[in-house]
Amino acid sequence: MERRMGRGSLIFGWLGLILAGAMILPLAAPVALPGAGAAPALAAEEPRETLIVAVAGDLEGWDPATSTYFTANDMIQTLYDRLVEYEVYQGEDGRMYADVTKFKGMLAESWTTSDDGLTWTFNLRKGVKFSSGNPLTAADVEYSFDRAIKMGKGIFNTMLGFAGIKDVAQTVVVDDLTFQVNLAEPNNLILHILALGPNAPVIDSKVVESNVTEDDPFAEKYLRNHAAGSGPYILESYEPGNQVVYVANPDYWKGAPKIKKVIYKTVPSAQDRIMLLLSGAIDMAYDLPGQDLTGTLKDAAGVSITSYAAPSTTVFFTKNTEAPYNDVRVRKALCYAVPYDALIEKVLYGLGTPAVGPVANGVAYQKAVNECTYDPEKAKQLLAEAGLADGFEMTLTYREGRPEEETTAVFLQAELAKYNITVTLEKIQTAAWAERRSAKTITAGLDGYTPYAPDPTYVLNFWYVTDASLNTWQYSNPRVDELTKMAVVESDAAKFKAYVEEAQDIIGADQPVVWLFNPYWNVVTRDNVKGYVFYPDRCTRHDTLYKE
Amino acid sequence: MRFLLYVVRRLLLVIPTLLGVSIVCFSLVRVLPGNPAYFIVGPYATQEEIAQVITQLGLDRPLYDQYLIYIGNVLRGDLGYAWHTSQPVLSDLAQRFPLSIELSTIGLAITLVVAIPLGVISAVHRGSWIDNIARVVAVTGVSMPMFFSGLMLIYFFFFRFGWAPAPMGVLDMLMDPPPRVTGMILLDSLIAGNLTTFRSAASHLVLPAITLALPMIGSITRMTRSSMAEVLHSDYVRTAIAFGLPRRTVIYRDALQNALLPVVTMIGVLYGFALGGTVLVEMIFGLTGMGSYSYGSIMNMDYAGVQGTVLLVAVIFVVINLAIDVLYALIDPRISYG
């Protein structure tokens, strides 16, 4: 009996421990809950100087030379400056936009180009300091470029290559504040590339070099978790998966930003982001479903939704090299078979426009070459001409975790059934999709693109030139290849225009893909957040923002 | 002595178990379609860059070769590098795991505190109003998916009433965490004697813990009830009552002790359930624990991240179950370890 009692008390002793642990909750909760629902402590103290942004996911790393996904680009760009940037203007709608046709100096106060267009000399701004306190010199600019080139990988290296800067010998330090780029042939993209918000930053070479190790010659490990920039904000703390805290750079050469603290919070659930925004606990939210933007949030008090025509295009593509899609009549038929307005309503809840061609809105020299409108008769006729009046089978591939793609796919499946085209939907993991896109083994699928540099040659070069890395549809037209090459190096504006327009005309006639729509970029904030400037890279320039 | 031998033998068995887990997990993530290299380099990359990353990751080697390298590193305490967070997996896990353990433990504690009394009372007073309420609670808890109950809790307690803090992280924004000792924020706050962070963390953890507890409460209530009912029907209880022992003593001392034995076993299983549940709960409540980490790893095809998490969960699961078996030997005289 004694033994048994001992055992018994053990159970209860043990349960008691758990109970005691659970007591923590009822004890703590009532104390903590009152007032806890109000805006967080700091925001209450200085709400006008703090901006809290809720994002769906975290970034993969802080190295601007290799970051390629939007979330990372958006979080990184505010820490760095570039050599040049776009002018800003007020549109007719009263909003502020980057003017993608006009450049101004950023870290470069001015620049000159030799008559042959081969030598670019940048005169750096005096007195600019990195957040480490190191002064900006031409050596930093050279190091930033050379680092990307020597790494031989990453988006900055790709972009520099496109701008004709492929060798470290092309970058020259003339003196402390003069940096020179020598090109082998003229290049129209160079200023666009050097203005790239997230990917063309000038890094603090002293800080980065001091973190170089034998097996890490480019300090990639260091830059994955640190920043070394001169931008309007300084990275104060980073808790992976939870939050990023930026503080305003008090010595910023443009003057200290009005918002003193920017906090990015990872909030994976869209419903949470909506409630947080409605309650005023955050100032800005990314990645909200169109359904809520046009529903719950549309007329909600205190919330402002502004839609911008971003240079993004969503496409329904088929592999141009494979039957039956190697027949232009079939591609045209698919194009005439889509009821665009209904699709935009269904997928984007009206937050987008029909696409006019390969080059999206907001890109200079855009030409309307998309001949398709919804015309079922014409689609039927084209299919009949191609000998496919009885239809065919198609496997349509799209990505998991993208509800808008799923809606589009289901919509297309139903529409195409009217032409006896039997569509099998194939939803695959994003990683599998990335692999198959790269290997170009998707026969029919959904994709989207947003050129970082708002220039038609950028679109042509990465999506429509033969064997381009993102030419998933394997479109190939030698004349388009030739025109793109000529346009990139053409210094005469009229000729440039003629080349890119001819290329767009050809693409319009060839119909390599079905351009479904241009989705808007929706900026969702509390209505006291002002000063937003829309850049084609869609990243938020926090230093222009302020709160009323 | 025999008992010690048993524990040692069980501990030795942990090794093949974990090896098995590591092999299965290692192969499973690689069977999934898609190669992380394409993801890492991004869409603009050339075939050469992709090839370079594949070589770097060792993905071009035969599978057994990759596994041997991996397990060799694990034995040296290197779980690899998670590309989607740019951190070594070990430091990622050290950062995030304590929160999930904390959350699961509180969830489990709430479950036991609510479910056991509810189950016992239902069994003793079968058919009474409290039994009926317990049944409704149990069925609702089990059948309501966590993403829904979690969202509802946020909707009412944060959004409507403003009682709960915003579902963003485990502390108020910009509140400095207590000095890191265990990594568990409540414990660390107590160790540091910082009641402000303790309160903040507790208020942030209440709703997630309840969300996690709801389905467990359902199953434990029902289990306790049936186990208790069975014991109450047994001969010894009837005899004891017939002999005139006080009913209360018989039920709450003798019967309860025996009825709780299967519940103790369930705790091990439930701990695994709770740890699994943190995936959803952490996503809903914006918490940075192991759950959201494993989700991120899977979505990003982060082999090292997935493998590291699975291995750690396996270790914890094995340890907890071992502890429970040992506990069992102590509390149940019928069990001996030979």
Key phrases:
heterodimer; A: about 550 residues; D-Maltodextrin-Binding Protein, domain 2; Dipeptide-binding Protein, domain 1; Dipeptide-binding Protein, domain 3; 3 domains; 4-stranded antiparallel β-sheet; 18 helices; about 35% helix; B: two-stranded antiparallel ribbon; 14 helices
Rg value of chain B: 24 Å
* Tally of structural domains of chain A: 3
Oligomeric state of the chains present here: heterodimer
For CATH, the homologous superfamily of the largest domain in chain A is named as Dipeptide-binding Protein, Domain 3
Q: Strand arrangement, largest sheet of chain B?
A: 1-2
The outline of chain A comes out as globular
Strand content of chain A: 15-25%
Mean pLDDT of chain A: 89
Mean pLDDT of chain B: 88
How many strands, what sense, and barrel or not for the largest sheet of chain B? Answer: 2 strands, antiparallel
Q: Strand portion of chain B, in percent?
A: under 5%
**What is the level-2 CATH architecture name of the largest domain in chain A?**
Roll
Quick one: CATH class of the largest domain in chain A?
Alpha Beta
Number of strands of chain A: 21
Counting H and I runs of at least 4 residues, what is the number of helices of chain A? 18
What's the total number of strands of chain B? Answer: 2
Look at the helices and sheets of chain B and give the structural class. Answer: mainly alpha
Terminal Cα separation of chain A, in Å? 75 Å
CATH topology of the largest domain in chain A: Dipeptide-binding Protein, domain 3
Q: Distance N terminus to C terminus of chain B?
A: 10 Å
Write a compact overview of the structure shown.
Chain A is α+β, with helices and mostly antiparallel strands and 548 residues long.
Task: Explain the overall architecture.
The complex is a heterodimer of chains A (548) and B (338). Chain A has 548 residues and is α+β, with helices and mostly antiparallel strands. Chain A folds into three domains: 2-56 and 232-308 and 522-547, D-Maltodextrin-Binding Protein, domain 2 (3-Layer(aba) Sandwich), CATH 3.40.190; 78-223, Alpha-Beta Complex (Dipeptide-binding Protein, domain 1), CATH 3.90.76; 313-519, Dipeptide-binding Protein, domain 3. In chain A, 34% of the residues lie in helices and 22% in strands. In chain A, strands 1, 8, 9, 10, 11, 12, 13, 14, 15, 16, 17 and 18 form a twelve-stranded mixed sheet that branches. In chain A, strands 4-5-7-6 form a four-stranded antiparallel sheet, with helices on one face. In chain A, α11 (328-336) packs antiparallel against α13, α12 (340-348) packs antiparallel against α14 and α16 (456-464) runs antiparallel to α17. With 338 residues, chain B is mainly α. Chain B has 14 helices and two strands. Chain B has helices at 2-31, 36-41, 47-57, 63-75, 89-124, 129-143, 146-160, 185-192, 195-233, 235-242, 247-259, 261-285, 290-299, 303-331; strands at 81-82, 87-88. Chain B has a two-stranded antiparallel sheet. The mean pLDDT of chain B is 88. Chains A and B meet through α1, α2, β10, α9 and α15 of A and α2, α3, α5, α7 and α9 of B.
